[in-house]
Amino acid sequence: MHPERLGPYKIVRLLGRGGMGWVYEGVDERTGEPAAIKVLAASVSREEGFRQRFEAEIEALRKLNHPHIVRLIGFGEEGDTLFYAMELVPGPSLEQELHQGRRFSPREVVLIGLQVCAALRHAHDRGIIHRDIKPGNLLRTPEGKIKLSDFGIARLFGVSGLTSAGNVLGTVEYMAPEQAEGRRVDHRCDLYSLGAVLYALLARRPPYRASSALQLLEKKRSEPPEPLRLYNGEVPRELEAVIYQLLERDPEKRIGTAVALARRLEEVLKVVVEIESRQASSVLAEFDSAAFLLPSQPASNEDLPATQPIPTVVALPRQPASPGLTDLPETKETSAFRELAEEAQPAKEEVSEAPTRPPGRFVVVPSEELGRVERAEEPHRPLISLQTWALVAALLVVGGTVWYLLQPPTADQLYTKIMRQAELGGVEALLPIEDEVNQFLLRFPKDPRVGKLQELRREIELYRLERQFERGLRGQLDWGRLSPVERAYLEAMGSLRSDPELAARKLEALIALYAPEGKPSDDPAGPAHQCVELARRRLARLKEELQTGEADLVRAVEERLSLAEQLRHDNPRRAAEICEALVTLYEGKPWAGPIVERARQVLAELGAASGGNQADSAGHSLEGSVPSNPQDPFLGLRSSGTVPAPTDAP
Hints:
disordered C terminus, 650 residues, Phosphorylase Kinase, domain 1, 7-stranded antiparallel β-sheet, Transferase(Phosphotransferase), domain 1, 4 domains
């Protein structure tokens, strides 16, 4: 059930949903302003430390105010539900445009890259790393401008690397190798991701493709991306070189900053313009590197569209120094990009502390506060003195120590930690070290101990699959999405309580039907293999339980049969009742075959003895009064009243 209202917003419709929550379109009932309302799932909000991360990421978003970054409007809480409101961008994402078959020209791609560079420069200068740049997070406004969305989402939900089963594969395609491996990252991971996005826009596919996250990361570590010109022959070699440098595995070899990348793209744009029209364009002036460097006044709300026709004019001469936009002729284009450059001007107004957010309230973040929160707290830089140098030296020592302590563990350290935990026994003991197991397999794929750790990870995956099926038995799974082998397993488990032997037969049939044939195309980690392996293990446990239970049952039934044998002379009627009950209850049970046979023998003896007694006492006078029935050896007993005819005999 979707909410009707959140804070001051009336919910209009659902825009999207995912594992972390929902995104709605809402309208502020006070102002009529639309917004994208991002509601976090209650299960995620209750995780330990999540609310602290939510508060920290909101504070980070308050520092961002840029024409190419989706703006934060406010945040709040309704009961246990955390949510925040962002600027609503009605246009499509670049991912949607790719799926719709759109082809991007080199000029469009360069212009998109320059806009993202401006957004990243603004964020990186404030110490904020995006961590999840991909086509789906680049939105196009109706005017054609590109806006970068979902700042802080990766760190908010702890997506700093691969998780089990590769469930962030869509992000890994654009993720820097150091980030996917779980190592510390800096702003250069965003530049790598931007390079991957530019590649995808030109080639209409990511730089690397693989069937699993592990294979994808291995390709990133060992193989260069395929040449762009294989997929798009119009890509200039200058643009190809920039993208390849952004995709360097070693962060030190990449283009270092968003400003440096913007300068390189500006030069590429000149080449693209010359190729297209053999004439220079005023577009070069729009993205002059001074737009990234000169401080001025806060940015205006009036923005330039992302792409527009290139006017044919004479090339503007490059100044020896960075003169700024004031040296360019005043046009609509230079005016708009002058405003883009002015976002770096420090604010002059005093900013009050952020208001406290009580439960069930909504905190509006005024647009004039955005981008300036951190400046009110910046300390004044001290003069360079002897004390300053001493402090710098001390900080270097401390920083070096911290850097050493924060280095990722070696293979031996990881393996020792994993095996120490595994020795505690049980799959539950492996769950706390699942990240370490994945990290070892990612970072040390050629280590001779990989096979052992792959077995541990397989145990973890089977444990999670079994828990998933248990939820299915409680009605918490959508059966329509299950594969045939998964349905068969759940049906077998559904018979377990009422008829364990039937459940065992169904598990045996499942294994016989879906057991892998050993073909090269079979995936050992696929759902069919995992389900069959789970069925084998469950069948082995079930047979052991049945054998244990059968031994107790055999003893109890044999005691009743022995009692019947003792009573056949003193109380033949009771002895016959017990034997008939044994035959009725346990006939056909494999383990009860000998017992049932003995019960039949006792019944036969009782029938013969009853017939002999009647012959002795009554002679032949009753022969015609008792009908002959070869199927009922106890008819004589019943007719004489010795053994009553059971009313529900089998």
